[in-house]
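Notes taken during the Thursday session

The instructor put the following on the board and asked us to keep it in front of us for the whole hour. The protein is ABC-type xenobiotic transporter. We were told not to look anything up and to reason only from what is written here. First, the residues (333 in total):
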Amino acid sequence: MPPSVMSTSNSADVLRSPAAVSAIGLRKSYGDRTVLDGIDLRVPAGSVFALLGPNGAGKTTAVKILSTLVSADDGQAQVAGHNLATDPQAARAAIGVTGQFSAVDGLITGEENMLLMADLHRLPKAEGRRVAAELLERFDLTDAAKKPASAYSGGMKRRLDIAMTLVGDPRIIFLDEPTTGLDPRSRHTMWGIIRELVTGGVTVFLTTQYLEEADQLADRIAVLNNGRIAAEGTADELKRLVPGGHVRLRFTDPTSYRNAAATLTDAAPDDEALTLQLPSDGSQRDLRTILDRLDTAGIDADELTVHTPDLDDVFFALTGPATAPTQPKEEVR
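Then, after some discussion, the predicted structure tokens were revealed:
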């Protein structure tokens, strides 16, 4: 089994849900290059599962296998209760896939893209038009429905892409890096769409390189590196795997700084910046202890900041800084 961390009560509830997607020992190689080296996955129904990893880690290959686009060399997988090796057609009927690159045809209108998808799902004409109209309205694309999709913005194309995926009413959706290249506003809009899908009972299997995206959306996260699952758990559980939490105290008065350094002997001093750094888990109890020590000594710090490990720290610790994603972190308010 892949490395994981102890579940909290909330994550335990998720894990008790039936598995929408499960895999044991999945392996895939291309020539002499091993892309997936025996990975195990379990995605509870009605949840968001995020698969993180640097470029080339095997995220897209995992999605292609689980969505029946390619076959695994070894291992077993079930999607929506169907064995991919023996009943791939039944699995396909239960899933929708939105890949890294848009499936939207820019030469036809948004409405025509939707109706084409309805035809592919063999919906009756009237039913296809009804479903297309409902989804275009749901994704705020009604006003642009008659325009060529080539005129859509990146965010509009991505919304149309997911709307097309929902024409067949899938229970499980694979989203392979759905927000790559989108501006922050469009990305946040996409997050809202994903949350809405899950509220409606859909299971979302998400791959992403935006770590704040996984932190915001995912019930559980797995980090894939060199074809193997390096760790799995909730965002909070993964953050607890990484040491390095600390409190930083800054002083403007050199005398106060020296007195604080003499009082807090376990702190790492920076004489030039007049700062002290103490190991801390960031808990209220830990902070109170530090402040009580300063109060007892009659010392006031001019600034106190708390750093707790985030998913960036987890990612770097598990995959190494050389393979870390290059997208800038976005502060989520």
